[in-house]
Amino acid sequence: EKRYKPLNLMVDSITLTASWEAPRDVLIHENFEGNDFPPEGWQSLTQNIPGWYASDSGGIPGFTIPPHSTYAVVTNADDNGNGCCDYLILPGLDLRNRPDYQLSFSGYYTGAFEQTATIEISIDQGASWNVVYSVSPAPFSWNQITVDLSGYCGNGGSVNTLLAFHAGDSGGDGSGWAIDDVS
User: Whole-model pTM?
Assistant: First the structure.
């Protein structure tokens, strides 16, 4: 059994009452501020040019991304190839330690021009993928998104679970999807 430290432990100096946040098991945290893309251990698969890339000013006409720190982004337009299969894949994760893991990230997604944005999971090293979350368009600002992964966690969980951000253009022009602060 693993034990994790409580977070933000504070003791009131007068009453000597202690308070803290429950411990959390954070397997990964990525803010895309590093020099390498994709980050170490991540994979970017595409049939499109450029596919996923890091930027602080990405976007294309019809998909203007609001200001944000450096983020991962994929853009699609009718002149840059097949945007069906743009995957940004996290390193393999062991989800057996807890029954309640979640994926959390900031995202900007408008859904314009038939763009799709899904979170997918693979427990067979990427041979097959299952959609666990479809992102809803929110065209005006970055949004915080949390995806429940409890159905893939705990004793029956996989030792090498892959999670992917899958952007697709539905055979149309597509627009794009930007993500940041993945944990």
Answer: 0.84
